[in-house]
Amino acid sequence: MSNPGQARRRDLDVVRALAVVLALGWHFARKPTGVPPLTWAAAPGGSFGWAGVDLFFVLSGFLIGRLVFLETRRTGRFDGWRFSVRRAFKLWPVLYLYLVVQALAGTDRPGDTSGSLWPNAVHLQNYLGTSVPHLWSLAVEEQFYLALAVLLPLAARRRVRPRTVAAVLGAVLVVALALRVWATARGWGAVDVQWQAQFRADSLAAGVLLAWAAVHRTDVFDALRRRRTPLLAVVAGGTAWLAIVSKSSPWGMTAGYTVAWVWAAALLLLVLDARWVDRAGWVSRPLAALGRNSYGIYVWHVLAAQLAIEALGRDYADGGGVNLVVKYAAALVVGVVATQLVERPSLWLRDRLLPGVAQTKAEKPVTERPTMSVFISRVPS
């Protein structure tokens, strides 16, 4: 989640773009269009686009975890309050504007919408329900990071060793899977298992664990990144699983989400500092531009598509190529506008009022391709 004044990593924006394209496909591309090229292009999103959220989770955990561990290593403490306020500047303006517009213009207007929207304002929609179900993932993230903001300062004050922190993160990976197995065996619904934080914290914890390795065990992290063939095999095998096994099946509700974060972590490691990102600029630059606007696109895409289709009329409401193109176009346009007019000014104000820890020291420009040690210190926050 970058600051407007900082140099951005194109490879990270490419990962954001892949995640948001998958997520949009899950919501837009699950019906046949009647136009083979469009159907083929949208097939991954329509098949396993829900895993785009896990890719967001792993990337978010990696970036936030890196900030946390670098601050702790540099200062010997972690300011959870500062961290939480800076995240509020990032998330809330776009989100709250969306909730207001949704209350006024959404399909549930005007009676019960406000009652089903309010949990989103306090990040409890994954437990209390919501009329905008795609926002459940924001609640999982914020609940996870609230726990991080409370527990990590305590760990820093008690001088908990980094290895202990890594062990706790590893335990989260195991416990979340065990809880999913337990809940599935007891007949819990697929939506509850997908949405509730105790079942989904492993994707975020996996990203934070990668960040721990990048900061505290750089040699291990670099060795893992260099294993391109095994990483490609994991991505290929994970893609096959996600495309074949329904997330609502018993296997999908349990091992499926573990496969999703392993797949996402491998994909992230493959794209990080990958040479093709620079060499194939004709592909990576448009993807990076999309990634820079991914948060606004994700928050607004369902409502933007709904209003655009309503404007076209009933003839385009039931699928088809025009329906799909209009939905994607509306989501991109509205998401970019929300990013440029709401998110970026909010980040500018945040960095004037409450600069990040890394922004308090001037950094020398990097004039050559970054090594991993430079990468660790310069990934945007």
From TrEMBL:
UniProt source species: Klenkia taihuensis
UniProt entry keywords in alphabetical sequence: Acyltransferase, Hydrolase, Membrane, Transferase, Transmembrane, Transmembrane helix
Keyword Membrane: yes
Residues in Acyltransferase domain copies: 11-341
Gene Ontology CC, one term: membrane
GO biological process: lipopolysaccharide biosynthetic process
Source superkingdom: Bacteria
Protein name: Peptidoglycan/LPS O-acetylase OafA/YrhL, contains acyltransferase and SGNH-hydrolase domains
